[in-house]
Q: What sequence folds into this?
């Protein structure tokens, strides 16, 4: 952990409000983006981000200083989002563990699906994004969330592994599998 | 549609921008919660003594306990 971060945490723990605001400032964008991706609802983000940071400050005293602060905060954001999905009955009770079915496709990440005939002529960009969003909504959370998190700029595989409580290899497998499923969903829908 | 196109579409999703004053508001809320917890811990720390006092003077214990609880409540409500 960098010294500045350590000092920031110590200042927060002594009740320094400016330090708390700096900590929120440094991570709010990523926390909100994680929650937005996980819930798919922009209107919820501010409340759930607030909930996340209040949990962060509540538990800051027990934070393991050897760990990465950002990953710890994003893990709490992920859990807050999952809790919300559970409360609203939108969470599919599935662990992020890699199944034998997922293993079958591991290690072939560079294998690209053949392009559809002249896709640029078929989809305008907005239509393209709409299709992807609709297909994403149909993916099981186990695959949807790793894929969405992996597409967030600044969130790397080790951080996602920490958030989901799985290995980096498992994240890669889940993301790869998710891309394949997403492509199949879009192809089938079209 | 190619997988690269999917990746591209996913990366185009916008990031969340916190509203103005968000960090300051959260910091204030967090501080309020800490203050409340400190007060509650202070109250809880006094309970064993209140119980001992109550046992020592059973005639006055009920009134004493009422008074003590009221003081605690006022402390928390500050």
A:
């Amino acid at each position: 952990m960098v010294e500045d971060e350590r000092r920031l945490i110590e200042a927060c723990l002594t009740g320094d409000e400016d330090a708390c605001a700096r900590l929120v400032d440094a991570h709010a964008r990523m926390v909100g983006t994680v929650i937005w991706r996980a819930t798919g609802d922009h209107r919820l983000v501010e409340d759930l981000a607030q909930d996340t940071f209040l949990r962060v400050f509540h538990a800051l005293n027990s934070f393991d200083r050897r760990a990465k602060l950002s990953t710890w905060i994003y893990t709490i954001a992920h859990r807050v989002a999952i809790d919300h999905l559970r409360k609203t009955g939108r969470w599919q009770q599935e662990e992020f563990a890699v199944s034998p079915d997922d293993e079958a496709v591991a290690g072939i990440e560079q294998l690209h699906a053949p392009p559809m005939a002249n896709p640029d002529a078929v989809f305008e960009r907005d239509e393209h994004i709409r299709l992807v969003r609709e297909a994403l909504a149909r993916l099981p959370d186990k695959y949807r969330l790793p894929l969405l998190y992996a597409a967030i700029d600044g969130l790397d595989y080790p951080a996602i592994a920490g958030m989901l409580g799985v290995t980096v290899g498992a994240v890669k497998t889940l993301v790869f599998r998710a891309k394949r499923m997403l492509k199949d969903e879009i192809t089938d829908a079209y | 549609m190619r997988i690269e196109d999917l990746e591209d579409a996913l990366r185009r999703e916008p990031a969340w921008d916190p509203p103005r004053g968000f960090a300051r508001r959260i910091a204030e809320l967090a501080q309020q919660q800490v203050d409340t917890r400190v007060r509650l811990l202070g109250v809880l720390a006094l309970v064993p003594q209140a119980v001992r006092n109550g046992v020592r003077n059973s005639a006055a214990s009920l009134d004493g306990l009422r008074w003590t609880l009221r003081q605690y409540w006022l402390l928390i409500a500050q």
Remarks:
- Chain B has three helices and no strands.
- The longest helix of chain B spans residues 22-56.
- The helical segments of chain B are 3-11, 22-56, 58-77.
